[in-house]
Amino acid sequence: MQTLAQNVTDTLRDWILHGRMRPGMRLEEIPLAEQLGVSRTPIRAALGTLASEGLIDHQPKRGYLVRAFDMEEIVAAYEVRSVLEGLACRSAAVHGLTEAQTMRLKASLAEGDRILGGGELRPEDHEPYQQMNVTIHDTLLEASGNPWVTRFAVQAQNIPFASDRIILWDDHAVILRSHGDHHRIVESVVARDSARAEQLMREHVYYAGVILRKNYQKLLDAGDAAPGAKPAKRPQATAVDL
């Protein structure tokens, strides 16, 4: 069971990754405590954790500020993710999936097929597709049997625009290609073809970084990462390794 400090940390991390707290924004204990309805103690612990993760910076006399990441740092995070998640798929293929993991992956693939079957991505499709995507990636990380791979892959995801939990491009063709990758990756893992499973996942995540690079300026123009900008509706996209 998560502690209050962990819950607060998850909430603040989510706000940063989704752009609710923008680069350069100052984070103060008392306002955050009032906003979340908690004491300053879990806020203080959460800020310390987020600072250790590199999402916020502590500056003398200014407190904590949301960190800004440039395009090259974000792309570098995708490169790390591609290697780690590729390794996870290789390990999962070598060790084999449990029956529960196989069923979870097949159910997720079917859910993605259902969502994309209409030929378009409707606003109400974003959340279920995103959750389906997260389930596939998390299950493959779990199936690797290597806690260090999971730990460092999650750390690489905790960078704005580099997470498979945040953005979802509205381009149906892009998402359809990505979900086709999901099918091929899972098929390779089930077939115990470790080399192919690793290569497919590496390409899958790397391609997401390529798509982000091509569309990054659009996100900035929309005010998605502008320091001090007012919260805006996020352009729908997902670094979802697509």
Structural key phrases:
mainly alpha, 242 residues, disordered C terminus, globular, Four Helix Bundle (Hemerythrin (Met), subunit A), 9 helices, Arc Repressor Mutant, subunit A
CA-based gyration radius: 18 Å
Shape: globular
CATH class of the largest domain: Mainly Alpha
Helix share, percent: 55-70%
What is the subunit arrangement here? single chain
- Widest sheet, order of strands: 1-3-2
Structure class: mainly alpha
Tell me the CATH architecture of the largest domain. Up-down Bundle
Instruction: Tell me how many strands there are.
Output: 3
Domain count: the total is: 2
C-alpha end-to-end distance: 31 Å
Order of secondary-structure elements: HEHHEEHHHHHH
Q: Which sheet architecture does the biggest sheet show? A: 3 strands, antiparallel
CATH homologous superfamily caption of the largest domain:
GntR ligand-binding domain-like
Summarize, please:
With 242 residues, this protein is mostly helical. It is 64% helix and 4% strand. Strands 1-3-2 form a three-stranded antiparallel beta sheet.
Task: Tell me what you see in this structure.
With 242 residues, the protein is mainly alpha-helical. It is built from nine helices and three strands. The chain has a three-stranded antiparallel sheet with strand order 1-3-2. A hairpin with a 3-residue loop joins β2 and β3. The longest helix has 28 residues, at 194-221. The two termini are 31 Å apart.
